[in-house]
Amino acid sequence: MIILDTLLIGGIRFVLGKLVDAVEAEMDDDSALKDELLAAQMRLELGEITEAEFTRTERALLERISEIRSQRRGEEGSGGLRVTGAEVTFEGDEEPIEESRAARPRGRRRR
Predict the structure, then answer these.
(1) CB count, 10 Å around CB of 59?
(2) What total of structural domains would you count in the chain?
(3) N or C: which end of the chain has fewer CB within 10 A?
């Protein structure tokens, strides 16, 4: 039973780790926003949206791109934002399972 629990928790840690990596990559990627901006320009040229709608969309997208770029510069200089762990609780469990490796004590085990 303990081995099964250990395998289950290890699998959950792996999946959560991959999820955190994907979210961090998505937060740092501005190419999707650039694609949205290009699509908005095409819709404007085709007459699907008005100049005012395009201006609002462009302003919001450029603002978000600017935020991403400033976060990148901040990470290079001062550390920035980084996810270091996750806490998972299953229904019926009383204690959360800590995802962060930093939260686990290091050193020798006593026998």
Answers:
(1) 10
(2) 1
(3) C
